[in-house]
Specification:
The protein contains seven helices and nine strands; from the N terminus they run ααβαβββαααβββββα.
Length: 194
Amino acid sequence: MMNFNLLLERSVKIHGHLCPGQVLGVKMAMLGMELVGVGIQEEGRTKNLIVYVEMDRCATDAIQSVTRCSLGHRSMKFLDYGKMAATFVNLESGQAVRIIAREDTREKARELFPDIEDRYEAQIQTYMIMPSEDLFDVMTVRVTIPPEDMPGRPLRRVQCTRCGEYVQDMREVYRGDEVLCKACAEGTYYEPCN
């Protein structure tokens, strides 16, 4: 198993700087992979693992760097819950754990390192020395992953009857006799300028 310092270094290279979220994300990923019985890969993609991340913050980059799971390979799923939490699923065994960063560790940083004025630096130092059982709460969970969410090639592609764009992996919406993309059915996050 790769050691924490090497994994943190790999994460910092991807993320661009060291921050508390990097330390938490690396430790979270290491713990999650250990608990579901998936080994950390030095090179290449990790097989038989899907990770659901619940935040679009620094820890997600760290989790990606350790697990080698990614959105592009469909082995990382982003759920915008705004929580410092992630679920690790072993696709072979079905074993899954959800790991949540404990909020009280921020206060521990002030207690453990009162002389460090920069609170982020105090958090980094605290998270580096704290054992996982003090940093995280762990829940054993069950995750049912539908076939269209599994890694691999798209199962189906259909054309939206309104805009003509193609939709993959059963993300289309049916309204009467129309097959629609979610943008046409529910509205978009963007506004066309022309």
